[in-house]
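Narrative of activities, Objective 1.

The group set out to show that a structural description can be obtained from nothing but a protein's sequence at a throughput compatible with the screening campaign. Below is one input-output pair from the validation batch, recorded exactly as produced.
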Amino acid sequence: MSDTSLKSLRREVLAANLRIPEAGLATLTWGNVSGVDREAGVFVIKPSGVSYADLREEDLVVVDLEDGRVVEGELRPSTDTETHRCLYRAFPSLGGVTHTHSVHAVAFAQARYPIPVLGTTHADTFNGAIPVTKDLTAQQCARDYEYNTGQVIVAMLEGDGARADAVPGALVSRHGPFTWGATATASLENAIVCEAVAEMALHTLALRPAPLGPSEPPRHLLDRHYTRKHGPDAYYGNAPSAGPR
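Output recorded for this entry:
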């Protein structure tokens, strides 16, 4: 990995981490963003327990994608590092991963309830409900807990990269949301959307609680909103590059 590309990745990862508190997604230091360089076989992640106000580019930690060892950095990487590494290894399309403890998404995770698709705002980014994993077993918690946290996400998605791309996030049962994207920035933006649609869903369910509940919108409407941003003929936005925007 060249010094230039590493510096560029560090800058992006730093900027994405600093947006976590700005977006209201974390209390104290409860959140982290990483970004991967596939060619170099490393990813850059926030260090453990460092406040966002104190976070500097040189504090970020570079981790080997293959074995999880620290390649560069004086500080310990986030305790969630192994979850990020597991997701990167399982889904080659991922370029960034974000984990937060944002309030409304965590409420769904703690209730072990997927965030349902109740309107087009959700469908703009997530092509389906944001799923929730099974609880980790005692054995999964006792050893390699953080890597196993990633494994339960991978298992829930059946290792399906296309499914991971279509619904770029999941709730870990009793824990909170992990989101991902083509870049560190995209993964953070998906975390922002995840929290927003979780809040909207809670308000909607409060207005129409179970057992009635709101019905899922027509599939053709949801598909239209998703594909206008992410389909082969996407036309949302003004970005010069092709693909989702």
